[in-house]
Design a protein that fits this description.
3 helices, 2 strands, 111 residues, 13% strand
């Protein structure tokens, strides 16, 4: 077995000035790196959102909306299944329905 060596030389602590300097440079580097990554991330995210947002209305929904407005603007009938029976209903324009509902003597139930 080897005998433990006696070291009599003194191990110096690191210089205080260089420790502070390296710590300060490391903090500045870390903060600038975090800011750069944040700027890149939010720049890419903004561009991605701009690409995904479409300003034009889809043609299918525009046509459907027009058909629904036309149906609401004219009189007509439609059938509906109520308690397993086919019931014919009358469709009237919304303006006329509001006039009828707001007329004196009419309840909300449509009596």
């Amino acid at each position: 077995m080897s005998e433990p060596t006696n070291t009599t030389e003194q191990i110096d602590d690191p210089e205080m000035g260089s420790t502070w300097f390296l710590s300060f440079v490391g903090i500045i580097f870390f903060v600038s790196f975090c800011l750069a990554v944040s700027v890149l991330f939010f720049g890419v995210q903004r561009n991605f959102d701009d690409i995904r947002v479409v300003d034009e209305r889809p043609l299918l929904s525009t046509g459907l909306r027009q058909e629904q407005k036309e149906l609401l603007a004219k009189y007509g009938t439609y059938s509906e299944d109520v308690d397993e029976k086919n019931v014919e209903r009358l469709r009237i324009p919304i303006e006329r329905a509001m006039e009828l509902m707001s007329a004196p003597g009419k309840s909300a139930a449509g009596q």
